[in-house]
């Protein structure tokens, strides 16, 4: 929302998986992981339209350490009737809701984005 070109966040495997889903669905331009000798830093290059509006208008964390949310493959909910992105952590890696339905796997709901 601050109209930054890039954002730096600490790196982890889950964050890299979420960034890969955001990139494949066009919510960010690209991301890179820089090794700083510790945890590593992931740099996200944000995407804006020609009017300067962010591609990500809303991001919501669903599962929390105090209240985990799991779904079966048949119960994966749509986001904004298919216009948003749901990210799940499955036994086959970090997948979008559509990919989880195609592969017939359920998992932990991480976040939804539109």
The run of helices and strands is EHEEEEEEHE
State the name of the first-level CATH class of the largest domain.
Alpha Beta
Number of strands: 8
* Global structural class: alpha+beta
Helix content: 10-25%
In short, what is this structure?
The protein has helices spanning 13-24, 97-103, and strands spanning 6-10, 28-34, 41-46, 59-61, 70-71, 85-90, 93-96, 107-113. The strands form two sheets. Strands 4, 5, 6, 7 and 8 form a five-stranded antiparallel beta sheet that branches. Strands 1-3-2 form a three-stranded antiparallel beta sheet, covered by helices on one side. By secondary structure, it is an alpha+beta fold.
Task: Identify the notable features of this structure and list them briefly.
114 residues, alpha+beta, Ribosomal Protein S8, Chain: A, domain 1, Dna Ligase, domain 1, 2 domains, 5-stranded antiparallel β-sheet, 3-stranded antiparallel β-sheet, 2 helices, 35% strand, globular
Tell me about this structure.
This protein is an alpha+beta fold and 114 residues long. It has two domains: 1-55, Ribosomal Protein S8, Chain: A, domain 1 (2-Layer Sandwich); 58-114, Dna Ligase, domain 1, CATH 3.30.1490. Helix content is 17%, strand content 35%. It contains two helices and eight strands, in the order βαββββββαβ. The strands form two sheets. Strands 4, 5, 6, 7 and 8 form a five-stranded antiparallel β-sheet that branches. Strands 1-3-2 form a three-stranded antiparallel β-sheet, covered by helices on one side. Strand 2 (28-34) and strand 3 (41-46) form a beta hairpin.
